[in-house]
Each structure stands twice: as structure tokens, then as C-alpha cells.
Write a structure and sequence with these properties.
Layout (H helix, E strand, L loop, with lengths): L46 E6 L6 H11 L6 E4 L3 E5 L9 H15 L4 E6 L2 H9 L12 H5 L11 H9 L5 H5 L3 H8 L1 H11 L15 E11 L2 H7 L1 H14 L1 E11 L6 E11 L2 H13 L7 E8 L2 E3 L19 H14 L6 E4 L9 E4 L2 H7 L15 E9 L1 E2 L2 E2 L6 E11 L7 E9 L5 E7 L6 E6 L2
Antiparallel strand pairs: 1-3, 1-4, 2-3, 5-8, 6-7, 6-8, 6-9, 10-11, 12-18, 13-14, 15-16, 16-17, 17-18
């Protein structure tokens, strides 16, 4: 059986000068296929390859489709940016065979506004290649796989462009033509990775795929037999939900960074109580205490008829490690009491009352810093900019706005004459956004020995200003 139109055979490096008809017959990739199931795979697998036709699809849409696909099979694999794989052999009898499975998966893609091409094959890469090539075939037997793959362009395998160009120059543009090439010569000229891909494509070797796991989240709801208005009673009603949360976190070795409580009312919208934590937390007693303090600050529009506890911000939980030294002593680590203090203050004063500071990439002093999450969270979520060794020392305390200083004989005064220390730091920037500055900054000492940060405008009238105070 001919797999594809005649393709030129690559010369073998070990071939001698004997005539072609006298040379020993070289094994090809197609002749060495084993109809038995490859090692490491389940017998009788059938994969559905889903190729989404949209070119500007967000990554979240692919994950949402994978979540929906888990209703049909537990073995779902992502193939970003536009592919999905489903092992469906064990689910076919639930959906009236291949035709029914094709219909339900196509409907899910259409529901998300993503037209797709579906193909079925005994190996995952074959199903994906057929779908990418726009061939919605259903190959149910491994023995018929090579014949269906033969006319498929090699571009469906998404090999590096350089390899595809070299193969095309040799007249090899389809999978069938590639399978007719000698294995040893193919591996030498085009790489062992491509040879392994052909083996996985045709079922000669196992093709293991990473199974998609839905993100962990916690949801528990409780309907009340009577309406409640007292905050301590409402918190006590949440105790069974917190017990379920503790079991959930303990069995999965996770902690939470956010916890949300929804209180349902008869006529008003649910009251939302969101609690953000300064560090991953899995202690249910601690979470209950913080939520109780947060509830005390919320005015309920109506009595509560139901409550719900939920969280999506799950992270691996690592218990605090004890340090030999106290915090701040000989390099001792930050105490867990710091994050507890931040959480308690935020629960009592509100989310916006407690914040941290971070450096920004700007030369203008008033724009070189900004608000960020509290320090414990900021340390986990972002890396501070690297400090410039050549940058001059600046104060931590900046005035809300530069304060004009009087001058005498060209030198500034503040509670007396100021003594300028060191060389000036010249800052000229901001011309592109209409807030241009041109200043010469100095470190100055007043008569009491307090170090100040002052600058002199480079433009007339060359006024002096106080901008910061050193600690």
C-alpha cells in the first residue's frame, strides 16, 4: 500500500558505491509500526483533538473550555494556545458514540464563541494533527491510522520552521512522505526529537500528556432556620463552615490569602465581607477571630437569612520556621506576629487603612514611590527594584510639597543659616508629561544639626526649597 506520492529517499551516510538494487533494504518508519498498544498507555485509547480556529483567544477561554470538557472525561490536557485533548474511549457509551461526543464538544465551543475542528484518533498527537489540518476524521483503529495521516501536511505537527523548510527542499511535505524515510538518516539530519514525535504520532511510543487540574476553591453555604441580627450569633452560625474549611485546607496542605463571607438577606443584596490576609493562613481559629472583628465594622441592612464562606486564593501552606535569633537581631527572620498585626489592623480599620511603600522607576523624588500591599504580602508578590550603587543618599521623609526657603547671600535659611554638605545631585526630567523639573539637590545641616534635603531651581529666580528631612 502506498502511503503518499513518491518521495525522494535520503542517501544513507553508511551506504557504499554498490548499485541501488544491490543495497540491503532499509527499514522505514511505517514498516516498523507495532499494532500493539505502546508501553505506558492504556489499551484502546481514543483521543479527541480540539483545534480552536480563533487567532486571538485569551488563555482564560482555553481553561474555561477545559473545565467544561471535564464533564465528559477526567483526562483533559491543554495544548496552548489553541488546542485541547480529551481521552474519550470510556465516555463514548454515555454520549451515543463518536457522533454524540463530537456534537456535545462542538456545542461547548460554540457556546464560548470559539468555532473548532474536532478529530478522533488512537494517539493524542494524531488527533491534534488531524484537527489542525482541518480533517475532522474519526480513526478508531490503530491499524488504519497511518493511512489517514499520510496526506496530512507536516506543518500540522508544528515543528520548527527551519526543519520544515529543509524537509520541503527534499520533497517531503506530508507525514506519509516523512514516514517513508529511513529512521537512522532521518534522526541524523532532522533530529531525534522529530523522530520521537513521529513515533508518538503513530503509536510506536508512549505519548504521556499532563492532565489538566481545575483550580482548587472552597464553597460552603448554610441556610438559617431563623433570621439573625446579632453579630456574635452570626459568627457562631459560621462555625460549621469554618470546620469544613479547616478540613479542606488540612487535607490539601493549603493556606488562604483571601476569605469572603456572603450574608444573604430577604430583600437587600447580600452583604459581602472580604478579608485579605498578610500571609497564607490555615488556622481556623485565627480566621474566625479575624472575620469576627471584620463583621463588627459592617452595618447590616437587614437580618441575615443565610451565609456562605468561599475562597479562591489557595496557596501551598508552609508553617513558620523558628529562627535562632530574634527578629532584627543578627539577621533573624521576620516574626509571624508582624503579619498577625497587619491582619488585625486591616480587620479593624479597613482594607485601605494599612499599606506598604514600594520604589518606582522614576527620577522625580515625589514620583519615585507608591503605595503597595502590606509588607508581608508585598514580599511574596513582587521583587523590589535593584538599588543603584551610584545613587546619592535620599531621605525617607519627604514633605507633601516642597516648602519655599528664604535665602541670604545666595544660601538658604531654615531656623538659621544652612550649611551645604557634599556635591549636588542634579535632576532634570519630566519634559514628556508636562511636569518637567530642573533642580540641584543638596544635603544641608541646620544650626541644630538636623540634616535636610533641599534643592535650588535651575530656572530663574533660582529659589531654594526644603523637600525632605533625614532621620
Amino acid at each position: 500500500m502506498s502511503l503518499s506520492p513518491a518521495a525522494p529517499r535520503l542517501p544513507d551516510a553508511a551506504a557504499g558505491s554498490q548499485p541501488e538494487e544491490a543495497q540491503p533494504r532499509r527499514p522505514t518508519l511505517a514498516r516498523e509500526l507495532t499494532p500493539a498498544h505502546p508501553p505506558g498507555t492504556a489499551a484502546g485509547e481514543l483521543w479527541a483533538g480540539v483545534h480552536l480556529l480563533s487567532t486571538d483567544m485569551p488563555a482564560a477561554v482555553l481553561q474555561q473550555l477545559a473545565l467544561r470538557a471535564q464533564a465528559y472525561t477526567p483526562r483533559v490536557s491543554l495544548e496552548p494556545p489553541d488546542g485541547l485533548l480529551l481521552e474519550v474511549r470510556g465516555s463514548l457509551h454515555l454520549f451515543a458514540g463518536v457522533a454524540g461526543m463530537r456534537r456535545v464538544v462542538t456545542d461547548e465551543c460554540r457556546h464560548l464563541g470559539m468555532p473548532a475542528v474536532l478529530a478522533f484518533a488512537p494517539t493524542p498527537l494524531a488527533a491534534l494533527a488531524l484537527a489542525r489540518a482541518g480533517r475532522p476524521h474519526a480513526v478508531l483503529d490503530l491499524s488504519a491510522l497511518v493511512g489517514q495521516l499520510a496526506p496530512v501536511p507536516l506543518a500540522a505537527l508544528r515543528w520548527p520552521e527551519e526543519i520544515l523548510v529543509r524537509l520541503a527542499r527534499s520533497g517531503v511535505r506530508t507525514i506519509g512522505a516523512a514516514l517513508r524515510l529511513p529512521r537512522s538518516g532521518f534522526a541524523r539530519r532532522f533530529g531525534a526529537a522529530q523522530l520521537a514525535a513521529l513515533d508518538a504520532l503513530t503509536g510506536r511510543a508512549a505519548d504521556l500528556r499532563r492532565v489538566f487540574r481545575a483550580p482548587l476553591r472552597f464553597r460552603r453555604r448554610r441556610e438559617l432556620t431563623r433570621e439573625l441580627e446579632d453579630h456574635p450569633v452570626i459568627l457562631a452560625t459560621l462555625a460549621p463552615l469554618f470546620a469544613d474549611l479547616g478540613t479542606f485546607l488540612r487535607t490539601r496542605q493549603c493556606g488562604v490569602l483571601e476569605l469572603e463571607c456572603l450574608l444573604a438577606h430577604r430583600h437587600s443584596p447580600p452583604t459581602r465581607c472580604l478579608m485579605r490576609l498578610a500571609a497564607p493562613q490555615s488556622d481556623v481559629l485565627r480566621l474566625t477571630e479575624l472575620l469576627g472583628e471584620r463583621l463588627e465594622t459592617i452595618a447590616l441592612p437587614e437580618p441575615v437569612r443565610g451565609c456562605e464562606l468561599r475562597t479562591d486564593a489557595l496557596v501551598p501552606y508552609r508553617p513558620d520556621r523558628l529562627h535562632l535569633w530574634q527578629p532584627g537581631e543578627h539577621g533573624g527572620g521576620l516574626s509571624s506576629e508582624a503579619s498577625g498585626l497587619v491582619e488585625r489592623l486591616r480587620a479593624r480599620l479597613g482594607e485601605e487603612a494599612i499599606y506598604g511603600l514600594t520604589l518606582l522607576e522614576s527620577h522625580r523624588p515625589e514620583k519615585a514611590w507608591g503605595r503597595t500591599a502590606p509588607p508581608a504580602i508585598a514580599a511574596c508578590s513582587r521583587t523590589p527594584p535593584e538599588s543603584d550603587p551610584g545613587r546619592q543618599r535620599r531621605p525617607l521623609w519627604l514633605l507633601p510639597a516642597p516648602q519655599s526657603l528664604p535665602a541670604e547671600e545666595g544660601l538658604p535659611r531654615h531656623r538659621g543659616p544652612l550649611r551645604l554638605i557634599g556635591e549636588p545631585e542634579r535632576i532634570e526630567t519630566g519634559w514628556w508629561d508636562g511636569e518637567e523639573i530642573a533642580r540641584d539637590y543638596y544635603t544641608a545641616a541646620d544650626p541644630h544639626g538636623v540634616l535636610l534635603w533641599v534643592f535650588r531651581e535651575r530656572e530663574a529666580p533660582h529659589g531654594w526649597y526644603l523637600h525632605g528631612v533625614f532621620g
